[in-house]
Amino acid sequence: MPKTLIEPFRIKSIEPIRVTTREQRQGFLEEAHLNVFNLRAEDVLLDWLTDSGTGAMSAEQWAAIMRGDESYAGAPSFFRLQAVVREITGMAHLIPTHQGRAAEKILFTSACKSGQIVPNNCHFDTTRANLEYLGVDARDLVISEGLQPATIHPFKGNIDLARLEALLKAEGERIPFGMLTVTNNTGGGQPVSMANIRACSELLHAYGKPLVMDVCRFAENAMFIKLREPGFEHLSPLEIAQQMFSYADAATMSAKKDGMVNIGGFIVLRKDEWLERVRQLLILWEGYPTYGGLAGRDLDALAVGLKEGLNEDYLRYRLRTAEYLGEKLEALGIGFVKPTGGHAVYIDARTVLPDMPREHYPAWALCNALYIEGGIRGVEVGSVMFGKRLDDGSETYHSMELVRLAFPRRMYTQSHFDYAAEVIAEVKAAASSIRGVRIVKQPKQLRHFTSEFAWVD
Ligand SMILES: *Cc1c(COP(=O)(O)O)cnc(C)c1O
Question: What is the mean predicted confidence (pLDDT) over 166-182?
């Protein structure tokens, strides 16, 4: 058997990558105030800013787009999607939304109120923001290994069941439901084991609380279970996903991830409990229940994408890409969050720039260097994203300085990853010439998106 795991697709329609020089990129980045969010996408060679909504659709999905029915109510597109979602989740009620955060806003507004607490392994940033907006305390209870980048554990996304039980005992009456995020995006795209999902569900149910899963990357999580959890090696990703969903009472989904589409999301509900309120808010904020915030064609593309996202050959290749880049980083002696997750690789910038003070934002500096050196756009997950400038002018810093390279689905091939590894090697070799940055302009919230920077002299 040949060892090379090939991309399980061939290319029918291409988008050219515009090749630029190092000098040009230096200029583009300076025009962008040293913030890669401000770059024009056509000035980027490998765009690894996010895996959200950026992937390539298949020929079958484009065919489904043409089948889409744009009737306001009762379109066949809705019923095709509903059949697929019911098959995967086993849940009766599908509520389509325009993306994941709309699903969160509608479900949370229906199911919780100010002063309550919602536990999760780790809340994704929009999940946390939507809960906090309602006055709800979003509590992260991931196992301690999930917070240690260099510690290897097969399921670093697991929730700490002892801490969950202690919280249920102490604050049970304030908890409307519990959550689990699969895979755990905030924690590096790390999976949750079936045993942990089952135990979390049983524990919540023992206290009369429903389990709501955030299932943006349910297919990647299912594949990790197949590869890593004894007893699941002979099941298909679909069968594993069905079992994962069997423990949940509801789920929110951003279809821009494992739905394999460029826009979309949904809520699924097993029971009627929240249904009426959810439907009312859906009509108020998104649209009529058989299209939510989407066009009929989007529903059809998603119906096909959900099944393609569970294809075993695709998932094997998908998880292998991150692992492959991880192996190259390991050979270069560069630290990263281990093991690699499903959708991204998180480089530990301190292992490339050990001498740069945190005041010069080493992960931001590394992110800039990757762009200048090779046109690669990643995102800083460090003290610009999670630190703050306080009213007295002092700064707070994040515990880790990471650069996330997130991979759009079915977009890049092995040579792109080989190229990236070479760029990273060159950046490391010239690390002493990498310049730190200071913030010259920043907003109060979510400052990484719009802050402006200058080089530190
Ligand atoms: C992307 C994401 C969301 C939010 O979905 P959007 O489609 O971006 O609104 C919620 N939770 C997780 C885990 C995500 O990765």
Answer: 98
* pTM check: above 0.90: yes
* Structural domains in the chain plus CATH codes: 22-51+312-455 (3.90.1150.10), 59-308 (3.40.640.10)
For ligand 1, whether the C-beta of 214 sits within 6 Å is yes
Ligand 1 midpoint to CA 457 (Å) = 38
Q: Is the pLDDT of residue 424 over 80?
A: yes
Residue 332 CA to ligand 1 centre (angstroms): 32
What would the mean pLDDT of 369-379 be, rounded to a whole number? Answer: 98
Mean pLDDT of 66-93: 98
Per-residue confidence (pLDDT) for residue 211, from 0 to 100? 98
| Closest CA relative to residue 325, chosen from 362, 261, 378 | 378
What is the 359 CA–ligand 1 centroid distance (Å)?
30
Among residues 123, 410, 61, the alpha carbon closest in space to that of 252 is found at 123
Are the C-beta atoms of 366 and 345 separated by less than 8 Å? no
Nearest atom in ligand 1 to 184's CA? 13
Ligand 1 center to residue 68 CA distance, Å?
25
- Sheet (strand 402-406) strand order: 344-348, 402-406, 379-381
Most informative mutation of 133, 216, 267, 446 for ligand 1 (most atoms within 8 A of CB): 216
Residue 457 has pLDDT above 80, yes or no: no
Q: Give the list of residues 6+ apart from residue 144 with CB closer than 8 angstroms, or none.
A: 160
State whether the beta carbon of 52 lies less than 6 angstroms from ligand 1.
Answer: yes
